[in-house]
Amino acid sequence: YNEYKSYLSMSKSVLVTRIEQFSATHRLYVPSLSDEENEKTFGKSSGIHGQGHNYKVELQVRGPVDEVTGMVMDIADMKQQMANVISKLDHKFIDKDVPYFSDKPSTAENICIYFWEELKNNLPDGVNLNKVKIYENDKSYAFYKG
Question: Residue 40 gets which letter from DSSP?
């Protein structure tokens, strides 16, 4: 019976989501395009001074519920893992201050992938990333599921 009970708890996968915020500036600009092409592609977001956002990031993990703790992952650990990544972006000019974006536009899509890459190997055994969602504002977001 105990083996069966253990199997059932391990086979049940639960999603856990944490939401955090950060503020940053970015400029959507591709050096291989002319200024005119960048403006046509990215509009005001291609301006030399960039634009700021109060980003919201949702991190969702998937895993089995631990029989002892009743948790997939300690939410305080999840918060800390997110804080480690956010500290590299918060109050920064993403394109200038974050090396990952030196050769790619700092779109919400690429910021999702950045979070994924930074977090994917820093989770407890048996816990996997399920989704990273980045909101630039209340009306626009991107999400990445690896």
Answer: H
Residue type, 34: S
23, 94 Cβ separation under 8 angstroms: no
Interior angle at CA 144, CA 12 and CA 104, nearest 5? 155
Residue 138 backbone dihedrals phi, psi, to 5 degrees: -70, -15
Put simply, whether the predicted model's pTM sits higher than 0.85 gets the answer: yes
Strands of the sheet with 51-64, listed across from one edge? 13-26, 51-64, 128-135, 141-144
Q: For Cα atoms 137, 139, 109, give the angle at the middle one, nearest 5 degrees.
A: 70
What would the pLDDT profile of 57-84 be if each residue is shown by its tens digit?
Answer: 999 999 999 989 999 999 999 999 999 9
